[in-house]
Amino acid sequence: MNQLTFLGTGDAMGVPRVYCDCAVCTEARLTGINQRKRSSVLIHSDGATEPFMIDCGPDWRSQMEDQGLRMVHTLLVTHAHFDHIGGLPEWADACRWLGVKGSLYAPREVITTIQGQFPWLSRHMNFLETDDDIQLGGWNVHSWKVCHGKNGYSYAYRLEREGYSWAYCSDAIDLKEAEKKPLHGLDLLVLGTSFVHELAEFSTRSVYDMREAQELLGELKPGCTYFTHMSHDVDVQQNYDLDPGITLATTGMKVPLGSV
């Protein structure tokens, strides 16, 4: 079955934040319902021998242990911020010990940045560009650049097969019409929303909040939406009166991609 698994749904700092005793961080320590590792997903695909991942943050090792996985050979990367690539040295070490070369897919400029930060990674993985559409695990994959606000840019991915389309857009804000275009006509959208309502000055921000995201969804009209990349502002036990079709993703949540 084509299936999406949320390995992590947290923002750059994760939840709980080590310094914080707010109600959400406290609950995360006590019961783990709000515990959130850095955002990443795992995709199982019909006909593929193994799943692939989107992003490889600093929680990669524990996310693999959570799923009982010893290796994933293929990664898609959205951008070169630490919460999305901090696990690459551990992945490279797994490649080295197992005597295999991983396949890291990303847009050219993201690859260039990663190679500048970790010049030795190419000994353990192949870097493959996604600037032209690619096929991965039976999916047609399209990447495009999106505004990441104060933090520069990220990339989103739209994946299609057998008449089903979904997209992963974890780090974006203030999308212009051209950036929104590939997000139309989706059966499912995974969208980053760090806060319920972020009060920081707009020019200092980098990810949609839930109020803004619902306005965006009013334009895009996906079949369903899962919010991810959530900070300790978000309590998944609360009813935020979100529009129908929106779900707050939680760690380990599995979602079918297409008919069950």
Describe the protein.
The protein has about 260 residues and is an alpha/beta fold. Helices cover about 20% and strands about 25% of the residues. It has 7 helices and 14 strands. The chain has helices spanning about 25-30, 60-65, 80-85, 90-100, 110-115, 175-180, 210-220; strands spanning about 5-10, 40-45, 50-55, 75, 100-105, 125-130, 135, 140-145, 155-160, 165-170, 190, 225-230, 245-250, 255. The strands form 2 sheets. It has a 7-stranded mixed sheet. The chain has a 7-stranded mixed sheet with strand order 7-8-9-10-11-12-13, with helices on one face. The longest helix has 11 residues, at about 90-100. It catalyses: 3',5'-cyclic CMP + H2O = CMP + H(+); 3',5'-cyclic UMP + H2O = UMP + H(+). It comes from Paenibacillus illinoisensis.
Work out the number of β strands: 14
- Low-pLDDT stretches are none
| Run of helices and strands | EHEEHEHHEHEEEEEHEHEEE
Shape: globular
Strand order of the largest sheet: 6-5-4-3-2-1-14
Q: Round the Cα radius of gyration to an integer and report it.
A: 17 Å
The structural class is: alpha/beta
Largest sheet: 7 strands, mixed
Count of separate DSSP helical elements: 7
Strand-residue proportion = 25-35%
Helix content: 10-25%
Let me know the average pLDDT: 97
Question: What's the N-to-C terminus distance?
Answer: 7 Å
Organism: Paenibacillus illinoisensis
Catalytic activity: 3',5'-cyclic CMP + H2O = CMP + H(+); 3',5'-cyclic UMP + H2O = UMP + H(+)
Pfam families: Lactamase_B_2
InterPro entries: Metallo-B-lactamas, RibonucZ/Hydroxyglut_hydro
